[in-house]
Amino acid sequence: MIVMSVMIVVLKINDGKAYATMALIRNLQRFTKEVIYMPFNVLPKMNSHRQPLCQIAIAQSVSTTQPLHEQQKVKITFVKSNGDRIEATGKVGDSILDIVVNNEIDLDGYGACEGTLTCSTCHLIFPQKVYDMLPDKPTDEELDMLDLAYDLTDTSRLGCQIIMTKDLDGLEVRVPSTITDARD
Description:
It is a single chain. By secondary structure, this protein is an alpha+beta fold. Helices cover 17% and strands 28% of the residues. It has 4 helices and 8 strands, in the order βαββββαβααββ. The protein has a 3-stranded antiparallel β-sheet. β4 and β5 form a beta hairpin. This is 2Fe-2S ferredoxin-type domain-containing protein. It holds the Pfam family Fer2.
């Protein structure tokens, strides 16, 4: 027996609540087979200078009485500024922040906002080749937070915004020597 359901989530983006809402959308992937996003630019504008204050996510969930296949594992290596290497394992669909938290990796101050895109403490530096193959480009919100990060490079990204794929298995990223919490 297979049960299929479709859920449409319309979330209001408003001031500080926007970031928590985006974290909720990202977490839908843990409970669903597929999440389809409608970016702001496909929605009608509220006025000439502002995008609408809403985001739509459509999630399709599939349930079955048969056991689901275990999610594919991915490996990542964090290289600290002193050369120490920390290896960790996560699952396809996890953010890099999820992997740090789930593996209880001690990176001082890392992920202070818990993935709500209100700080830059999960700033990581990617090799150019890897940066070029990341599935999603940084959003304006992520770029705003990165502008406040210490040791910013052209290949800097926030770990909370990078969702692991099978293509990123074996990823090696550099952790900056100092973090900046944009909330301070």
